[in-house]
Amino acid sequence: MLHYRTVPVTAFAQNCSIVWCGATRDAAVIDPGGDLARIEEEVQALGVKLKAIWLTHAHIDHAGGTAELSARRGLPIVGPHPGDQFWIDGIAEQGRMFGFPQVAPFTPTRWLHDGDTVQIGQCVLDVRHCPGHTPGHVVFHSRQAQRAFVGDVLFAGSIGRTDFPGGNHAQLISSIRERLWPMGDDTVFIPGHGPESSFGEERRHNPYVRG
């Protein structure tokens, strides 16, 4: 069974998630935006073995710690979709703009595409490409655990911003309705910021995408 622990990091209170397989204790970290000491303390406290970095997208608060953590731990970088290459290319400049120390660009070990899967231990998660917030945004979905790690696509009561370069409001709405809702109303999602919710709750009540 898939387990996870959410660790808010950076001044943006970004929800970094440590996910692990209960059988093997192998783990991945989703969106290590920064505060790496805090993330590594949590990994140690959980007693899991960090094997990979998974990225939903390449905005600084989600990917700022990626290069350093990968180099320090020898971890493969999985994701996002190639549409976010320009965000990776400019991540050092993003870091300077927002006061993130020692941010470096990186090359993903593996780009992700719609319909791919990722695996940690015995747990397999589906990958859905959900552009709109960024062109290369992906979501990780565990059917078994009925959990989805959605980055900045959807929030409890809100949706991701689309006013950044490469953002597209109509595309974001389409991603939510065509790629998230079919995962099922009972699926709980872990957003990039703020509290968890379920797709059913948002489909019924979120003013941006209900109905």
TrEMBL record:
<keyword id="KW-0479">Metal-binding</keyword>
<dbReference type="InterPro" id="IPR001279">
    <property type="entry name" value="Metallo-B-lactamas"/>
</dbReference>
<keyword id="KW-0862">Zinc</keyword>
<dbReference type="InterPro" id="IPR036866">
    <property type="entry name" value="RibonucZ/Hydroxyglut_hydro"/>
</dbReference>
<feature type="domain" description="Metallo-beta-lactamase">
    <location>
        <begin position="13"/>
        <end position="193"/>
    </location>
</feature>
<protein>
    <submittedName>
        <fullName>MBL fold metallo-hydrolase</fullName>
    </submittedName>
</protein>
<keyword id="KW-0378">Hydrolase</keyword>
<dbReference type="InterPro" id="IPR051453">
    <property type="entry name" value="MBL_Glyoxalase_II"/>
</dbReference>
<dbReference type="Pfam" id="PF00753">
    <property type="entry name" value="Lactamase_B"/>
</dbReference>
